[in-house]
Amino acid sequence: MPDPIERPSLIDVLESRLRADIVAGTYPPGTLLPPERELAAGYGVTRATVKNTLVRLEQLGLIETRHGVGSRVRDFQAYGGSELLPWLVGQSGSGLLPDIFEARATFGSVIARIAAARAKPEDARDLEELLERVRSAPDARAAHDAENEVHRAIARITGNQVFVFLANSVLNGYQPVRRALDAAFSPDGTAQALAPLVAAIVAGEPDAAADTALVYLTGTAGPMLDLLTGTDDGGVA
Predict the structure, then answer these.
(1) For the segment 66-79, what is each residue's pLDDT rounded down to a tens digit?
(2) Residue 44 falls in which region: left (phi positive, over 0), alpha (psi -120 to 50) or beta
(3) Domain 84-229 belongs to what architecture?
(4) Residue ranges of E strands in the chain
(5) CATH class, 10-79 region
C-alpha cells in the first residue's frame, strides 16, 4: 500500500515558503525578516500563524528572534542542525545525498567499531534477529526498512546517545527520497552483504567491524545514487 498523503497546515506551508526564501537568499544572513504584521499580510495568513512559524524556524537554527528587535536570519550552513537535512533533500533532490552518504559511511564505521567493543550477549541476539528480519522480508521495501533498523541497533549498542542521534539524523536525512531507493535492496542480497558486519560486532572485533561497515556503507551508496539519477544497473544487494 502507498504511504498516506498528509494534508499540510498553514504553518507547514508558511514554514516551507520562508525556509525556501531564506535558503535562496531572499532574506540573506544577518538581515531582519519583515515584521510579523507585514509577513502576515504578505503571505495572507494570521499573525498567530506567523508567530508559530517563526518559532519553528528558530528551532531549526534559521533565525534568531529577540524581543524588541525582530527575527534576524542566521547563516543556515554555519548554524543549521540536522533537522534541516530532510527538507533540503526534498528541495534539491539528490544534490545533498553524496554528502549524506559520505557522513553515513564515516560515522557508521566509527559507530560499528565502538559497538563491537561494547556489545553484550543480548545485543548479539538482537542483531542476529534483525539480520534474519532483513533476510525474511517479503519485499524490497521491507528489506530496506529492516536494514535501517540494523544500523539503529548498532548505534544503540554503543551506549552513547549522541551516536544514536547521529545515526537517526543520517537515516532521516534522505527520508524524502527513501522510497525511491527501495529497489536497491533485496532480502537475501542485503542480508548477505550485512552478515560480515553483524558477525564482526557479535565476535567483538572492533577493527573488523569498522572495516566491514565502511565497505558495506560505501558499497551501498553508489547504487542508491544511481537509482535517483536514472543509471541504476540492478541494485545494491
Answers:
(1) 988 999 998 877 76
(2) left
(3) Up-down Bundle (1.20)
(4) 63-66, 70-73
(5) mainly alpha
Alpha-carbon separation of residue 4 from 7, 90, 133, 143, 179 (angstroms): 10, 17, 24, 20, 13
Cα gap 226→222, rounded to integer Å: 6
Cell, residue 156:
544503540
Which residues is 71 bridged to in the sheet? Answer: 65
Give the number of other CB atoms < 10 A from CB of residue 84: 19
How distant, in Å, are the alpha carbons of 23, 54, 55, 57, 235 from that of 40? 20, 12, 15, 15, 48
CA distance from start to end of the chain: 23
Ranges of residues in the chain with a pLDDT under 50 are 232-236
Residue 124 · residue 153 · CB < 8 Å: no
Q: Whole-model pTM?
A: 0.74
